[in-house]
Design brief:
23-stranded parallel beta sheet; 1 helix
Length: about 425
C-alpha cells in the first residue's frame, strides 16, 4: 500500500510539473536576421524553409535590411523585442504585413519598422487585423514608404480589418499622401481605427495624409474611435489631424454594407489634433467627406492652421453633425474657418457642416480671421446647420466681423430646417 501511494505521488508530481512546463513554456524566439518569417495558424517558417508546426507564442527580435515578417492566418500572440526592420530602400517591400488572421502584437523594448515604396510600416491587408499592447515599457516606431501609412494600408490596397491600439508607446509616420494611422494614398482603405490607451503620436505624410484617418486621393477608412490614451495627431498639407485626408472619405461598415460618412467618436483621453489645410478634427480639403463627430469626453485640443475649422469641415469639404457632451474642448481655426463648424469658401469651393449640438462640457471655440466661433466660416459657400446649446460652459469668439455664434464674414450662412 505504501509503495503504491509513493508511486502515485511521484506520478502526480511528474504530471503537475509537466503541465506547468507546458503552461508556462517560453515563447519561441525567431531572429529576423536569419531570414524572412512567415507565420500561419499552424506554425512558422524562416527563410523559405518548410513550416515548423507550432501554435504557441512567438517573440521576434534582431535586425535586418532585407528580411520581412508576414502573418497569413490564425490568431497569434507576437512579441516584438527590439525588432528592427528597414526595407525602405526596396520597392514594394512591407516590413511587417498582416494579410490574414489577427496579430496580437506586444511591445517589449523599442522596435522599428520601415517599409518601401507603396507599403505601410506595419501593414494590414485583406481581412488581416491587429491589436497592439504594451508588453513592458514597449515602443513601436512604424514608418510607411512613399504613399504607405505608418500603420494601416499601403497605396491602392484594400483592407477591411480593424486596427486597435490598447496600450504602449506608438509612433506612426505616413509616407507622402498617406495617414500616420489609417489608409495609404490613392484608393486605399482600412476598417475601423480604435485607440483604447497608450501614448500615440501619428503624423500624416505631406500632401494630403491625415494624422489618424485616411490618405489622399480617394482613400477611405472606417469609424475612428478613441476612448483613452494620450494622442497627438498631425496631418500633412490639406488634411485633417483626425479624420479625412485630401480628397478622401470615411466610411461606416455595417455588416457588408458600406455607407458614406463614417463617424469620429472621442469619449476619453488627452487628445491633440492639428490639421494643415484640413480641420483639426473632421474633413480634409477639397472633396473630402467626413461623417458625424461625437465628442463625449476627454480633454480635446483641435486646431486647423489654414482653411479648416478646428472641429468640422474645411474648404471644399463636408462633415456631418457635431455633438458635444462632457468634453473639455478647445477648437481653433488659424485662418478663416469657424472654431466649430465649417471652413472657408476658397475660390468657390463650398464648405458644409451639419447641425452643431452642445449639451454639456467646457467648450472654447475661436474662429479664424473671418470665421465664427461656432457656426460658419468665411464667404458665402461656407454653411452649417442648426446650432443648439442646451448646457455646458461655452465661450465662442468670432474673428474679424464674424459672429461668436452664427455666421462668418461675407455672406456665409446657417441653415434652419
Amino acid at each position: 500500500m505504501k509503495r503504491t501511494l509513493k508511486f502515485l505521488i511521484r506520478v502526480s508530481a511528474i504530471f503537475i510539473f509537466s503541465s506547468l512546463s507546458v503552461m508556462y513554456a517560453a515563447a519561441q524566439e525567431l531572429d529576423i536576421s536569419q531570414g524572412s518569417i512567415v507565420i500561419t495558424s499552424t506554425g512558422y517558417s524562416v527563410g523559405g524553409e518548410t513550416e515548423t508546426d507550432y501554435t504557441g507564442e512567438i517573440t521576434l527580435t534582431g535586425t535586418s535590411t532585407a528580411n520581412t515578417v508576414e502573418i497569413k492566418s490564425g490568431t497569434r500572440k507576437i512579441t516584438l523585442n527590439n525588432l528592427n526592420i528597414d526595407v525602405s530602400a526596396t520597392e514594394n517591400a512591407a516590413a511587417f504585413l498582416i494579410s490574414g488572421g489577427a496579430g496580437n502584437v506586444y511591445l517589449s523594448g523599442e522596435s522599428t519598422l520601415k517599409s518601401g515604396l507603396n507599403r505601410a510600416g506595419l501593414e494590414i491587408s485583406g481581412t488581416g487585423r491587429v491589436n497592439i499592447f504594451d508588453g513592458g515599457n514597449g515602443i513601436l516606431n512604424a514608418t510607411g514608404g512613399k504613399y504607405g501609412a505608418g500603420i494601416g494600408s499601403g497605396s491602392q490596397s484594400a483592407a477591411k480589418g480593424v486596427i486597435t491600439i490598447k496600450s504602449g508607446t506608438v509612433n506612426a509616420t505616413g509616407g507622402e499622401g498617406a495617414a500616420g494611422i489609417g489608409s495609404g494614398k490613392t484608393d486605399s482603405s482600412t476598417g475601423a481605427l480604435v485607440i483604447n490607451g497608450g501614448v500615440i503620436t501619428a503624423n500624416g505624410g505631406r500632401w494630403g495624409g491625415a494624422g489618424i484617418g485616411t490618405g489622399a486621393d480617394g482613400s477611405s477608412c472606417g469609424t475612428i474611435r478613441i476612448t483613452a490614451g494620450t494622442v497627438t495627431a498631425t496631418s500633412g498639407e490639406y488634411a485633417a489631424g483626425i479624420g479625412c485626408g485630401d480628397g478622401s472619405r470615411m466610411k461606416y461598415d455595417n455588416r457588408d454594407a458600406v455607407c458614406e460618412g463614417g463617424a469620429i467618436s472621442i469619449s476619453g483621453g488627452d487628445i491633440k489634433a492639428y490639421g494643415d489645410g484640413g480641420a483639426g478634427i473632421g474633413a480634409g480639403d477639397t472633396n473630402s467627406l467626413c461623417g458625424k463627430i461625437y465628442l463625449n469626453g476627454g480633454t480635446v485640443y483641435a486646431y486647423s492652421a489654414d482653411d479648416g475649422a478646428g472641429v468640422g469641415a474645411s474648404s471644399g469639404s463636408t462633415c456631418g453633425d457635431i455633438t458635444i457632451n462632457k468634453c473639455n474642448l478647445t477648437a481653433i481655426s488659424g485662418r478663416c474657418g469657424a472654431g466649430i463648424g465649417s471652413g472657408c469658401d476658397v475660390i468657390y469651393y463650398t464648405s458644409v457642416c451639419g447641425n452643431i449640438t452642445i449639451n454639456s462640457g467646457t467648450v472654447y471655440a475661436q474662429g479664424g480671421s473671418s470665421g465664427a466661433g461656432i457656426g460658419s466660416g468665411y464667404y458665402e459657400g461656407s454653411t452649417c446647420g442648426e446650432i443648439k446649446i442646451t448646457g455646458g460652459e461655452v465661450t465662442a469668439i468670432g474673428g474679424g466681423s464674424s459672429a461668436g455664434i452664427g455666421c462668418g464674414y461675407h455672406k456665409s450662412y446657417i441653415e434652419n430646417d
